[in-house]
């Protein structure tokens, strides 16, 4: 319909896409075949059964068990390149113009895959996608909160050459939030600053409380927050964050699949708009959560029926909040 074509045509950015979360069941089974791997049949029987299981995650940790298992099939450079390229191809029809892509190095090095294989493979697939579809990209490494601070420190230090070369522009933090307050990882972000990571972000306030978003921004000095939806439980916090320009990367379909919200209509998006908080709309793990970036825009439109001016503003805020050059931003609008 006309809303769909309007939202599709709107130049969109996404800053919250885990490339491992774009591993579709089809590719998962194909790569398992390619490597002669036997998948655990209790988790992986057929594609329809797997898709049904993905519709029934109990919470973030239940999802993470699947997310962290599926990536066992990513082994050589070509696998990582194919994964990144498939994502680019899929969103090229959605009006995506720029993506800032997360990956979890520890999840790969921890099972014996060389960091070189991971980064080179991803870079190759993204570059090929950029050439074919004109979508620009940046890479952001995330350390995982379910492993130790020491492991995160090591992952950050190992990334130094890729930061120096400009291939990896930022550090984020993802995985299990429960029992892992931001303050635990303050020293990791200090190391990242010393190593020269130009940009910092953190998953915060997805399942955790508003006070943890406050810690992220004020104690750790991080001004991009991935998810952050629970910040909306604290009006005073929002009033403090708006003038700082703290940028939220929201993932509405993810929040429903992981039972943060019962439906997209529970999302605090209208409140964030009213409070002048800048945010973007993102897919998070599109192969698991029922849609890519445009599907998230459409779900939000179904829930809130924003007018065209509001949609243009949301998309523009997503461009403004990107970590690319001003020239690139100008070309996107
Ligand atoms: N939250 C935390 N960790 C993740 C997510 C998420 O939404 N996606 C992939 N890893
Ligand atoms: Zn995420």
What does this structure look like?
By secondary structure, the chain is of the alpha/beta class. The chain has one domain: Metal-dependent hydrolases (TIM Barrel, Alpha-Beta Barrel). Helix content is 51%, strand content 14%. The chain has 18 helices and nine strands. The strands form two sheets. It has a five-stranded parallel beta sheet with strand order 1-2-3-4-5, sandwiched between helices. It has a four-stranded parallel beta sheet with strand order 6-7-8-9. Helix 1 packs across helix 16 and helix 8 runs parallel beside helix 10. The longest helix has 19 residues. The radius of gyration is 19 Å and the shape is globular. The two termini are 23 Å apart. The structure holds hypoxanthine (HPA) and zinc ion. Hypoxanthine binds next to helix 4. Hypoxanthine (HPA) binds next to helix 4.
In short:
The chain is of the alpha/beta class.
Lateral arrangement of strands in the main beta sheet: 1-2-3-4-5
| Percentage of residues in strands | 5-15%
**N to C succession of SSEs:** HEHHHHEHHEHHEHEEHEHEHHEHHHH
Largest sheet: 5 strands, parallel
- Taking the alpha carbons of the first and last residues, their distance comes to 23 Å
Number of strands: 9
State the oligomer.
single chain
Helix content: 40-55%
CATH architecture: Alpha-Beta Barrel
Shape: globular
As for the number of domains, it is 1
Ligand inventory: hypoxanthine, zinc ion
Enzyme class: hydrolase
Cofactor: Zn(2+)
Pfam family, one: A_deaminase
Site (Important for catalytic activity): 227
């Amino acid at each position: 319909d006309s809303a769909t074509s309007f939202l599709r045509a709107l130049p969109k950015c996404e800053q919250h896409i885990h490339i491992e979360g774009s591993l579709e069941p089809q590719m998962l089974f194909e790569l398992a075949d390619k490597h002669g791997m036997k998948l655990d049949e209790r988790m992986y029987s057929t594609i329809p059964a797997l898709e049904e299981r993905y519709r029934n995650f109990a919470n973030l940790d239940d999802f993470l068990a699947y997310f962290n298992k599926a990536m066992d099939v990513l082994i050589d450079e070509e696998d990582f390149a194919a994964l990144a390229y498939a994502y680019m191809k899929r969103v090229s029809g959605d009006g995506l113009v720029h993506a800032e892509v997360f990956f979890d190095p520890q999840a790969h090095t921890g099972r014996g895959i060389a960091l070189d294989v991971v980064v080179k493979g991803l870079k190759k697939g993204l570059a090929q996608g950029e050439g074919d579809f004109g979508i620009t990209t940046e890479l952001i490494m995330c350390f995982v909160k379910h492993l130790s601070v020491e492991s995160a420190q090591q992952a950050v230090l190992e990334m130094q050459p890729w930061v120096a070369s400009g291939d990896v522009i930022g550090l984020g933090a993802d995985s299990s939030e429960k029992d892992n307050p931001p303050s635990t990882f303050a020293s990791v972000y200090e190391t990242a600053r010393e190593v020269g990571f130009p940009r910092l972000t953190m998953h915060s306030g997805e399942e955790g409380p508003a006070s943890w978003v406050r810690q992220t921004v004020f104690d750790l000095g991080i001004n991009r927050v991935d998810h952050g939806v629970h910040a909306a439980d604290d009006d005073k916090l929002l009033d403090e964050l708006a003038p700082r320009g703290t940028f939220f990367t929201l993932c509405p379909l993810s929040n429903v699949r992981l039972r943060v919200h019962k439906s997209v209509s529970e999302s605090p998006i209208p409140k964030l708009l009213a409070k002048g908080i800048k945010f973007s709309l993102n897919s998070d793990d599109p192969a698991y959560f029922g849609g890519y970036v445009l599907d998230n825009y459409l779900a939000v439109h179904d829930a809130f029926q924003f007018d065209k001016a509001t949609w243009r503003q949301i998309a523009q805020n997503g461009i403004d909040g990107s970590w690319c050059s001003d020239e690139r931003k100008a070309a996107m609008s």
